[in-house]
Amino acid sequence: MADPVTVAVDANGADLGPAEVGAGAALAARRGTRVLLFGPAAEIGPVPEGVTAIDAPVSVAKAPEPAAAVRSTPEASIVRAARAVGAGEADALVSGGSTGAAIAAGLFHVKRARGVHRPALAVVLPAPGGRVLMLDVGANVEVRPEHLVQFAFIGAAFARAVLGVGAPRVALLSNGEERARGTRGVVAAHAAIAARAAEVEGVAFVGNVEGTDVTAGVADVIVTDGFTGNVALKLMEGVSQSILGAIREVAGASVRARAGGLLMRPALRAFRDGIDPEASGGAYMLGLRRVGVVAHGRFGRRGFAEAIGVAERAVRGRAVERTQEDLEAAGALRRAPSGAAASVHPSS
Length: 348
Fold this sequence. Notes:
single chain; alpha/beta; Isopropylmalate Dehydrogenase; 11-stranded mixed beta sheet; 11 helices; 11 strands; 43% helix; 16% strand
């Protein structure tokens, strides 16, 4: 039997409280994952075998300046969890609090992977016949072409390692399918990804896609900057909730509609489950030296258990190592400046 994976979990910041995160950790432990749970022990309560609760009541989840809070609050639960991962005490990091604080703690204490310009935040979206990974969705508001190039291969590596996609189709989000459409950065990234994808076995660049194609199943990985990705993600979430609300309203509008609603309930429940963000485990911090997952603050225990499970699968699937291999094969790793001292590491 393979050695168990240990996941460090920040229990602070979740909408339903640390006890709900602890319940999710307990579910994950029953599946064989070891969990280091950082949070207020008095609120978490008793934990089962496989979960170790570390009393860390201080939270920076609501801090207005996450990076500054992470730097100045070493006793914060997210900082202590990230430090445990950076020190090798855990294999992956999961947070249910502030995305900004999780990214900052990951950068400061887990560190960027060798040669990576910037970590990206990625989410899995439902698509016909499968799923699509979109990145970046919020970590980097402004990016350069070389960042988009790295996102393409980081996303492809994750899709293979965790989503089970044998040969990921990678696309660049733009305002037209033609290679000359988009900002100058997008056009430059298109040319670079197309050239370098040819050097990486099992990665297919399918060119530009428009917003209507994001969940159409034409690509397995969609690459964009964090500003565009975040707006697109929030728009999709809003539309999905509006549609579900409208369906519920129409289904209860009359006796006939209520009868039809009863008949459609299994199909509607399957539709709801298909777009439920808890099923995907949250967002993934890609490009760090270890695996990182940010669960949505609204998640319940099932969502947190899934976030921990995704982190474990990423570790077992060698997502970090595959990312390095793909970036190396594509010649997309950041290089140290010419003449730099040998002690200066590009990911420091």
